[in-house]
Write a structure and sequence with these properties.
Elements (H helix, E strand, L loop, with lengths): L18 H15 L3 H5 L7 E7 L6 H6 L1 H13 L4 E7 L5 E8 L2 H19 L1
Antiparallel strand pairs: 1-3, 2-3
Helix pairs in contact: 4-5
Keywords: Isomerase, Magnesium, Metal-binding, Phosphoprotein
Protein name: Phosphoglucosamine mutase
Organism: Stenotrophomonas nitritireducens
């Protein structure tokens, strides 16, 4: 499995994340495919991405906020605003009382504006 931070878990090889094991796993896949790392990364394009954690009020459920009509409408609007250029999504945290608002787009300004609008809608619902 993997995490957004780039932290890879190879639980069939170790019980915790280990950078050396992860690197060896990548090298093994490249060897099996007969390609270089440069070849594997040729189609990769990096885009600006940012996540804002919006704290939910006491007694409120992050999941209920994500499912609320106002937030659902704001998310749909954000997705339309960046269609074909990025993505926007919300995720209630499983470990703390926050909604994670994430937007990525091919343009940093578009990403930031979309992120702020969506986070504002979540903040309003979480107040």
């Amino acid at each position: 499995g993997g995490e957004a931070s780039g932290h890879l878990l190879c639980l069939d090889r170790a019980t915790t994340g280990d950078g050396i094991i992860s690197a060896l796993q990548v090298l093994e896949v490249l060897r099996r495919r007969g390609i270089t790392l440069q070849d594997a990364l040729a189609g990769l394009s990096r885009v600006p991405q940012q996540t804002i954690n919006v704290r939910v009020g006491q007694g409120m459920s992050a999941k209920d906020i994500v499912c609320s009509s106002g937030v659902a409408t704001a998310l749909a609007g954000a997705q339309v605003a960046i269609v074909g250029r990025g993505r926007a999504f919300l995720r209630p945290s499983g470990t703390e009382p926050v909604v994670r608002v994430t937007v990525e787009a091919d343009d940093a300004g578009l990403m930031q504006a979309t992120l702020e609008r969506l986070a504002d809608a979540v903040k309003a619902a979480a107040a």
